[in-house]
Every structure is written in C-alpha cells, then in structure tokens.
C-alpha cells in the first residue's frame, strides 16, 4: 500500500528533483556544445516544472547573485580599447536603440489589432527589456500584470532559444570547456583573487539594490573599474559560474506556472508570434547595422535582441562575440526603455482606442 508524502516534504523533493534535472540537462546541452547550455537547460527544465504544477519560487536574492556573477564575468572583457571603440560608435548605438524601441511599439500595435490583446497590456508587454520594471509599471497604470509578465518572459525564452540557434548556425559554438576557458576563469585559480572577486559581486549586489538591473550592472562597473586600475584580477571558479547561469535560468523558467499559462492560453500564440516578429525585425536591423559599423553579425544580433541583458551577456561570452558592444547596447536600451516606457505605452493605448 502506497502512502502519500507529507505536505511539508513535497517542496523539498520538488526542489531536489528540479536541481538534479536542471543540472543534468544543463551539463548535457553544454557537452553538446549548445551556446549558453548551462543557462538554457535549467530554464527549460524550470518551465516544465512550473507548468507541471510545482509550487516553487526561487528567492530573488539568488537570482540577483547569479546576475552579479555574470556582471563580473563580463567585466573581465572591459578594456581601454573596448571603451574607445564604444565611444567612437555611440551615435550608431543610439540609433539602434531608438529603432528597437520603435519596432517594439509597432509589434505592440499589431498584437492589439490582430491578436485581441488589450492595448494597455500590449503596450507594456512588448517593451524590449527591463521585464520586471515593465511589470511593475504596468500594474501601477492599471494593466494586467500577469499577462504583461507572461508576454515579457515568453519573449525572453524565444530570444534565448533563437539566439542559441543563430549562434550555432553561424558556427560560434563553444567547445565542451567553454566555461572553463571563459575570460574570467583563469587557468591557475588563486584563492585570494577568487575571494576578492566574490566580494566585489556581493558589494555590487548590495549597492545596486535600487537600480534597474543593478545586480548585474553594479558588479560589472565596479569590477571593470578595479580591473582597469590594476587593483583586481577577476577570477571566478567554473562551478560558481555554472550555479549563476542555472540560477538565472531557473528564476525565469519558474515564472511560468500552471495558473498563469492557463489564464493566457488563448493569447499565447499571439504572444509567441509577436515575440518572433520582433526578433526577426531586430535581426534585420542588426544586419544593416553590422554592415554600417563593420562588425560581425552575431555580435550585433545579440546587441539588438529584445531579451534580457543577463541572458544576452551569457550567450555573448560563451560564443566569443563582441561582449563590449553587446553590453553597451543592451544597457543603453535598458535605460531607454525605462525612461520612455510610460510615454510609449500611452501612445499605443491612444492609437488603439482611436
């Protein structure tokens, strides 16, 4: 005779199963040389767990710690040459940011006209980036936060999966030791440097508590400044990076719970179509900009992709793209979306009511 598990022990077994499956699938994708496999695998597993009804919610501080590690990882790519290159191309980066925001507004109008999603919801749900900030701003303005959150994270999932596919098709596939050979992981790790690096992550997370994407940007800026000054040699152990990637992936994946998916089920095809349309439009823009700036298409594609800053940074590092370009343009768009989000949303709502 079988006995049911006590209710108090179910979350423990669910967490254990999630961790085992996420780690195994992440390592499998990594061994198969899938770009950002250590991030993509846990995200897909967490989506499956969430939709299957697992009542799990990763603490936000764990997610922020993962972002901080990725920020410091990217900081290792910051050099004076990278800064000079970005300064020379600031006008094109500004144009690219403007184009992406305009394209997202057009896609938002399309989802209202042809997909039946309310204008107030589509206005916030199609904003290209700053997902958590858009959800909060949407709720403050009377939009349905659940639909906005789903639209935002559906797009992030689409961006990550298509980004990995594009990276693979362009031949920018990392080897099995990609994480071990990443810029911030040095061949002979020193305990003291690793501890200092970890300290920078923790301090950066604390200082960036109230900033948009502060958990990623503050360790990045702090670590980059210390590295450029020669005061810090950034070293992050491979297992720590794997945990950081997995934490970000699981946090995003667990946002898709059964109740939310059931609520938006009829609108889900429209959300996916809108996300794919925006990705394709941004890719076309990236192709033109890559020719204008004389850079490779993969770097520009990742720089203009309407996904999360942390996810694009992970893919850029693992595929050896131009991390500085990706980081600069994604950060510029992040602040651009936050500053113009309310204005763009009002215009979309006004046009859809007319």
How would you describe what is shown here?
The chain is mainly α and 354 residues long. The chain has one domain: Na+/H+ antiporter like fold (Up-down Bundle). Helices cover 73% and strands 0% of the residues. It is built from 16 helices and no strands. The protein is globular, with a radius of gyration of 20 Å. The N and C termini lie far apart (65 Å). About 4% of the residues have low confidence.
User: Structural class from helices and strands?
Assistant: mainly alpha
- What is the C-level CATH assignment? Mainly Alpha
- Helix tally? 16
Secondary structure tally: strands: 0
CATH topology: Na+/H+ antiporter like fold
* CATH architecture level-2 label: Up-down Bundle
Task: Please indicate the count of domains.
Answer: 1
Order of helices and strands: HHHHHHHHHHHHHHHH
Question: Cα distance, first to last residue?
Answer: 65 Å
**Could you give a short account of the major beta sheet?**
none
User: Average pLDDT value?
Assistant: 81
Range of helix content: over 70%
> Which stretches are low in confidence, meaning pLDDT under 50 for 5 or more residues running?
175-188
C-alpha Rg, in Å?
20 Å
Tell me, what's the shape? globular
* Strand fraction: under 5%
């Amino acid at each position: 005779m079988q006995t049911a598990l006590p209710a108090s022990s179910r979350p423990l077994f669910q967490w254990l199963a999630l961790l085992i499956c996420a780690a195994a699938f992440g390592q499998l994708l990594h061994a198969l040389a899938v770009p950002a496999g250590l991030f993509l695998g846990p995200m897909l597993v967490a989506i499956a767990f969430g939709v299957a009804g697992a009542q799990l919610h990763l603490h936000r501080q764990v997610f922020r710690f993962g972002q901080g590690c990725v920020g410091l990882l990217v900081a290792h790519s910051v050099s004076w040459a990278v800064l000079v290159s970005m300064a020379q191309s600031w006008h094109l980066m500004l144009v690219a940011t403007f184009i992406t925001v305009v394209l997202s507004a057009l896609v938002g109008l399309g989802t209202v006209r042809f997909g039946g999603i309310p204008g107030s919801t589509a206005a916030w749900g199609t904003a290209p980036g700053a997902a958590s900030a858009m959800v909060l701003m949407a709720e403050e303005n009377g939009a349905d936060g659940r639909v906005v959150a789903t639209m935002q994270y559906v797009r992030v999932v689409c961006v990550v999966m298509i980004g990995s596919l594009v990276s693979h098709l362009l031949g920018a596939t990392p080897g099995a030791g990609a994480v071990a050979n990443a810029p911030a992981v040095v061949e002979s790790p020193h305990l003291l440097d690793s501890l200092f690096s970890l300290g920078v992550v923790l301090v950066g997370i604390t200082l960036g508590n109230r900033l948009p994407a502060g958990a990623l940007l503050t360790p990045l800026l702090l670590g980059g400044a210390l590295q450029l000054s020669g005061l810090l040699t950034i070293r992050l152990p491979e297992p720590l990076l794997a945990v950081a990637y997995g934490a970000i992936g699981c946090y995003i994946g667990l946002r898709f719970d059964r109740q939310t998916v059931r609520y938006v089920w009829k609108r889900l095809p429209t959300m996916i179509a809108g996300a794919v349309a925006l990705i394709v439009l941004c890719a076309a823009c990236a192709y033109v900009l890559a020719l204008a700036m004389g850079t490779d298409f993969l770097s520009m594609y990742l720089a203009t992709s309407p996904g999360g800053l942390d996810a694009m940074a992970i893919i850029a590092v693992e595929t050896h793209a131009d991390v500085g370009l990706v980081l600069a343009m994604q950060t510029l768009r992040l602040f651009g979306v936050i500053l113009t989000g309310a204005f763009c949303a009002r215009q979309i709502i006004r046009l859809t009511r007319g």
